[in-house]
Amino acid sequence: MNRISIREWIQCFQEGQFDKPDRATQIRAGWYDWFCKDSALRNKTYKMGNIIIRNGGKGKIDLDRNYVFFKNNCPLNGPLYDDFRFCDMETGNVQFTVQIACCWTPSRYAVYGRTPDGVFHSDEPIFQTNSVKELALWFNTPWPSVEIDFAELLKK
């Protein structure tokens, strides 16, 4: 899989480098696995890309230390749905998965992922919304700071 930083990916997307519908271009865009027709990938890249480019890099995603890839999922029971995943460039570990219109969640967008405590939440979404604007705002908002009361910890 081609790992380019999200910052570089956004630049390529905005320059139109992923506009061609051919398989090679879409694999360069980050497609990893799909069950739909190859010809459908370009439009899916465009729709998800317009969400990804809303990341400003000051929130939950580091644009230089993460990359993105795409999947078109085929569950055993239910219709196909798409997701994209933000991963650590060094380790390849998934930081966030954004499911789009999955029949198993009530919201259009469901985010699963790693919280600041290092735990990856895969059973329940850590954020859900029906709005791209709210999704972008959530990703662009840093995690809340955790105040540690060391005096209280020492009492234990």
Describe this structure in words.
This protein has 156 residues and is α+β, with helices and mostly antiparallel strands. The chain has one domain. It contains 5 helices and 7 strands; from the N terminus they run ααβαββββββαα. The model has no long low-confidence stretch (mean pLDDT 91).
Query: From N to C, what is the helix and strand string?
Result: HHEHEEEEEEHH
The number of helical runs is: 5
Integer average pLDDT = 91
Work out the helicity level. Answer: 25-40%
User: Low-confidence spans: pLDDT under 50, at least 5 residues?
Assistant: none
Distance between the termini: 48 Å
The proportion of strand residues reads 15-25%
Radius of gyration: 17 Å
Quaternary structure classification:
single chain
Q: How many domains, as an integer? A: 1
Structural class: alpha+beta
Shape: globular
Main sheet overview: 7 strands, mixed
Give a brief rundown of this model:
The chain has helices at residues 6-14, 23-29, 41-52, 132-140, 150-155, and strands at residues 31-33, 66-73, 81-88, 94-100, 109-114, 120-121, 127-129. The protein is α+β, with helices and mostly antiparallel strands.
Considering the chains and any ligands shown, give keywords for the structure.
alpha+beta; 24% strand
Lay out the secondary structure.
Layout: H1 6-14, H2 23-29, E1 31-33, H3 41-52, E2 66-73, E3 81-88, E4 94-100, E5 109-114, E6 120-121, E7 127-129, H4 132-140, H5 150-155
Parallel strand pairs: 1-2
Antiparallel strand pairs: 2-3, 3-4, 4-5, 5-6, 5-7
